[in-house]
Amino acid sequence: MPFIPHTPEDVSTMLAAIGAASIEDLFDEIPPALKTGKLKDVPDGLPEMAVTRLMQERASADGFWSNFIGAGVYEHHIPAAIWQITTRGEFYSAYTPYQAEASQGTLQLIYEYQTMMTRLTGLDVSNASLYDGASALAEAVLMAVRAHKTSRRVLVPKTVHPIYRKVVLTTVKNQGIELVELDYDPTTGQTLLPADPGAFAGLVIPQPSFFGVLEDVHVMTDWAHAYGALAIGLVNPTTLAVLEAPGKWGTKGADIAVGEGQPLGAPMASGGPYFGFMCCRQEFVRQMPGRIVGRTVDLDGKPGFSLTLQAREQHIRRSKATSNICTNQGLVVTAATQYMALLGPQGLAKVASASHANTVALADKLTVIPGVMRAFAAPYFHEVVLKLTDNAKDVLRALQAQGILGGLDISGWYPELGQAILVCVTETKTAADLDHYAQQLERILSKRREAPPCAYKN
Amino acid sequence: MLIFDHSRPGRTATSQLPAAGGSLDDLPAALRRKAAPALPEVSELDVVRHYTRLSQKNFSIDTQFYPLGSCTMKYNPRACNSLAMLPQFLARHPASPDETGQGFLASMFELQEMLKDVTGMAGVSMAPMAGAHGEFAGVAMIRAYHDARGDTARREIIVPDAAHGTNPATATMCGYTVKEIPTDSTGAVNLEALRAAVGPQTAGLMLTNPSTLGVFEKTITDIQKIVHDAGGLLYYDGANLNAILGKVRPGDMGFDVIHMNLHKTFSTPHGGGGPGAGPVGVSQRLLPFMPIPLVLNDNGLYRLATETDLPQSIGRLSANMGNAGVLMRAYVYARLLGGEGMHRVAEYATLNANYLMAKLREAGFDLAFPERRASHEFIVTLKKLKDVTGVSAMDFAKRLLDYGYHAPTTYFPMLVPECLLIEPTETESRETLDGFVEAMKTIKHEAETNPELVKGAPYSLPVRRLDDVKAARELDLAYPVAESMPPRV
Description:
The structure holds two protein chains of two kinds.
Chain A: H1 8-18, H2 48-62, E1 66-67, H3 80-86, H4 89-92, H5 104-121, E2 125-126, H6 133-148, E3 153-157, H7 162-172, E4 178-182, E5 202-207, H8 217-226, E6 230-235, E7 256-260, E8 276-280, E9 293-297, E10 303-307, H9 314-317, H10 330-366, E11 372-374, E12 383-388, H11 392-400, E13 404-405, E14 408-409, E15 419-424, H12 431-450
Parallel strand pairs in A: 1-13, 3-4, 3-5, 5-6, 6-7
Antiparallel strand pairs in A: 2-8, 7-8, 9-10, 11-12, 12-15, 14-15
Chain B: H1 44-55, H2 78-84, H3 87-91, H4 102-119, E1 123-125, H5 131-148, E2 156-160, H6 166-173, E3 177-181, H7 191-197, E4 202-208, H8 220-229, E5 233-238, E6 257-260, H9 262-265, E7 280-282, E8 295-298, E9 301-304, H10 324-362, E10 366-367, E11 378-381, H11 383-389, H12 393-402, E12 409-410, E13 419-422, H13 430-449, H14 451-455, H15 468-473
Parallel strand pairs in B: 2-3, 2-4, 4-5, 5-6
Antiparallel strand pairs in B: 1-7, 6-7, 8-9, 10-11, 11-13, 12-13
Helix pairs in contact in B: 2-10, 4-10, 5-6, 10-13
């Protein structure tokens, strides 16, 4: 039996000790009518060798692609060391560090992670992580409402990832919280601040935005504070190596910073696991959801680490907890902490600047092709929206036939942009990769101009 | 020593840096960072050695018996990890077209179908990223169901007092109020209290079965009828699904919505506190409300369902497809086990728990529910020992660490004083269980003869007992820059 070590002799000895005649007797408290027959949709078990073969075949079928999609998930190089260490059994198969003395490895690592995140974001405190960037934003919205006390409205620009906005809505809609969309300037792509916003608890400030556009974070932060609301930065951690830290935005700095931790060493892996990070100013620490690790001392006065501020959490406060969350994405944070240590300030800045330079280089190559233009005039970082005169879906499909995933079609989410794609380049792409993309796009577009769509094959 | 203490200005893991940086001159100066973040400046060996050494300060399943009740700390097969981490799977961007991920999506679809079968539910969505996330999705579906029928007076969720804290916290997040009902002396839901609690305000009941007290709710059929007759829905908290996997299905017990903890029952790693995966299963009437994405099979093409497919969905819970890599590990586990293996999970988990319970009873330990069968876990209460010796369940737990065993869950459920909730799981051998019993006996003897020894434990770990009060009062949540090497700007 897979992973069950019992010999027949063990079973009979154990049943004798229990005083039961058979294993089935141990289930005599379950009403017989409810017992399960044979499972019909679960195939027979396979040896590891056969499952290996199956999974390798499936992996090969999925193959490798030249990827230019970003949209919140970024293809960065992941140092070999970090997942080898992360999947050591002592990290991989440990539980939540409730027994602090037997979990100092995990606890110290989280404390180091929290420290690194506060230094990246320029804020005072960090939690031990949340599920992902979108759910972290949802928790930030709830936190702003708790902290504000009077208003239950939060302003969310349309330049925030459309799926993030949906996740926020799913999470907060049953708590009487109103989400107000803010429009963007069609020329610059930057968020427009309304003249008369009414009372609100928080403003979400994406930097860079979903469009890759740089928002005027200083003005937005000060504007939120002028209305007595919290400023919530939604940031990409890689870019914080070179872009101003949320804690330094405007006169007083943002109050909360959240975002997707995936760029820090987590593989894209069809969507996860990643982690959401959340940092805030000291004054809001008791409103923060999720686990937090603190440094303290043991009986002998030796430094050590333990989970702290647990009075906020569900296992103590039950229905009055700050959130129902009772996990962090521990293993991914284990990888991210090593990633930040390995890259350091220089490395992370170089990853950010190389990614940006590659994006600029590709945008320059693509926008000289007839029928391709930049959607927005404002400065962008590491990701750019391109408008096409041709059908975005068809063009992307034609690129896919050449092994290129050329970007994300965002025309459905933003019909006002016409045919538009969001294109991202990271440090992993070479000049040859960029040339290949540009050549293929040029070839595809010119071919499509010459031939009517119905006659067009690749 | 922290990683920051190894930092020296100008040191880098050179081979991890991209060959060329790039110009940032096109960016407005006001938006650029003025001072570099004070991340560590260390070599690759510094990082590898530091974190390898940190890992050695952890207890884990791979190194210790870990009988942590309600957490199902069973062996995490290595193949589940290596096959989920095949390079093509890792390299796939989540927004890639469905055609580029048919291998991945086929695995997800098959896992969905297997989970349906083993739980007896009509539909499964694997979008939630943890048990509590699944709970949220489940209760949000209960609310969406009632609201869609215009039945908006139902605003109360009933929760037994023994429930996990996530249950009431989840109900609050869904805009519901919570009504607690008591448990009787045998650890069962008090049916009279339940009858008195239900009414036109009842949205549903959240129930863990076997309960957090380690016993099966024998009257589940009556419970089901009371809640349904009152117009409420029945929520199954899958925390203890390992106890019944392959023996009895939540769907057959009459549950309308369930969540599973794949990091427990399907042996994906706990990872020091996550990531988990908390798929939800639903009965027929909740199918339209399932969270997206879920995986559809369109005549052989696997694809992710969207808002168009499920217009009444409660919506999205994550930016992508949940904790996809965790789900891949669960899929591999399910294929290794197969149907027969799944039937065996609950059997051997229950055999181990009842054996351990019998041996501890024989050794003189008090059981919380001596007249009941253990499910996959059971409760020992040390109240008498504490009254006599002053040694608490916490002291006992800490002393177990010295003997190389991770402690059982302590002080949960809160109904039982000085309790240890013990869950051995099916993957542990008889010898391991016997060794644990010996350690328990030794500590009991120590408590009776030299209580101060036990109260001062642990002695052999990297640190002794920590000052949690200081941790909460004098918050130190990040290493001050001044304590570490000054960063180079």
